[in-house]
Amino acid sequence: MVDPLRKKWRKLPLRSRVAYLTSVAVALAVAVSSIAGYVTIRLSLYRAVDVELIEIANDLTAIVARDPQRLGGLTEEGLRVGSMAVTVVRADKKTFHLPGEQTRLVLGPKEFAVARLHSEPSARTGETTAGEPYRIVAVPINGLDAYALVLGRPLQPTRDALSSLWLVLIIFGGAGVIISAAAGAAIARSSLRPVRALTRAVERVAVTDELKPIEVAAGNDEISRLAESFNRMLRSLALSRERQRQLIADSGHELRTPLTSLRTNIELLVSDAGTGMLTSADRSEILHDVSAQLAEFTALIGDLVQLAREDRVIPAPEPIDFRDVVNAALDRVRRRGPRGVGPTEGRSLTFDVELNPFYVIGEADTLERAVTNLLDNAVKWSPPGGTVRVQLEGDRLRVADQGPGIAEEDLPYVFDRFYRSDTSRNTPGTGLGLSIVAQAVHRHGGRVVAGRSAQGGAEFTMRLPGSTTLEGLAATDPTNRRNSSSSSSSSS
């Protein structure tokens, strides 16, 4: 039974649910207030009747004490009590009434107990022999043991007043519930207007694929913050989509060049297979070009895959000696060709290396790729017989060359994907190496900047979070701190 109701409730619009909950809450408050008010007024009216009856009874006890069996000579006409019933009771349950009295009370143990014990006055709701509801009080008669005076007054007028009060409470309570329901619906409609706007925006994005932010009213409530968060998400998605489009466009453009050259050379070789017009030297040269184009194509694909990675770094549990990363990158660059590439071809380069201790937490392969790209860039632009300066001091790794350097207008763009300055458009490369460096360093929580070296060439400075000692690295590593806390907890 509960599950179907819960399912129906969840299918209701949020505005209807807010209005229903508001109405129910107000109805409960009105009901509780009405019941509390009714009970309070009822007790007050009954208490007022009891006080009045006890006062009248105390005034009559002196008269009744003269002749309790004849009620001191009281008569209905002389007493002028109207519909009030008067009775004297004795401890042996003997009762005495007014002469000619037609309305007699149905007495109970409380009245006889007051007569027997001469205790405090009693009050209760009873009835007459005719079945009419009466409020009955009993007081002991002073000076007479075992006697008590009992008075009764009809309760119907009091009950009629309470019934009228109850009817008024129901009418005004119902009106309050209806008004609160209307007010709750209006408040829900007004307060949920940003939610409806947010819903329409989400539906628009799903249907039209437009990432247009929604208008947010000034405020610091939860709805405004939700709308602002949604707008930030839309802007982030729009920026990510624009970057994706730019990457696809740029990569398509960059892939087209080696593919076109590769296709031309292969078609030439296929055509020559039937005609035999090419000499062996020409065929060897074409095959060499095909091999170079395949290598360029493979490097470009690898760089694109590297840039497309969006996963975050999961630090290795063991620290990395950054000197080992730099030495591995230096060995790779030397093995690839100490003669250099581009302007350095045919002449050896000198690597001036100074590495001081530095430890980091991260991916050794990714960092090695980044350092290798910096070294490749330095080798590519170094003059014949030049020197590449590699210095690791503190948290800074500097790679400087003696080449032409980077123009001031190109410095803000050197880490952009596929960016080529005017002087580098005819040199080998994919235009992605420095972008990979920036991405790898950023993923490890560091930064890299480009500038000019003291010798006039380019200088790249990479900074990573870490420490110059293993002890310092362990103290700053949150993983090690969690493991140490767990170990100490287990030990205790």
Name the descriptors.
about 500 residues, alpha+beta, Beta-Lactamase, Helix Hairpins, Heat Shock Protein 90, 3 domains, 5-stranded antiparallel sheet, 5-stranded mixed sheet, 13 helices, 13 strands, about 15% strand, disordered C terminus
Report on this model:
This protein has 492 residues and is an alpha+beta fold. The chain has three domains: 15-161, Beta-Lactamase (2-Layer Sandwich), CATH 3.30.450; 222-307, Signal transduction histidine kinase, dimerisation/phosphotransfer (DHp) domain (Helix Hairpins, Orthogonal Bundle); 310-475, 2-Layer Sandwich (Heat Shock Protein 90), CATH 3.30.565. The protein is 56% helix and 14% strand. The chain contains 13 helices and 13 strands. The protein has helices at residues 2-11, 14-64, 76-79, 109-117, 156-191, 193-208, 222-275, 280-308, 322-336, 364-381, 433-443, 470-476, 478-491, and strands spanning 85-90, 95-97, 122-127, 133-140, 147-154, 320-321, 350-355, 359-360, 387-393, 396-400, 447-452, 458-463, 466-467. The strands form three sheets. Strands 2-1-5-4-3 form a five-stranded antiparallel sheet, sandwiched between helices. α2 runs antiparallel to α5, α7 packs antiparallel against α8 and α9 crosses α10. The relative contact order is 0.06. Residues 338-347 and 481-492 have low confidence and may be disordered.
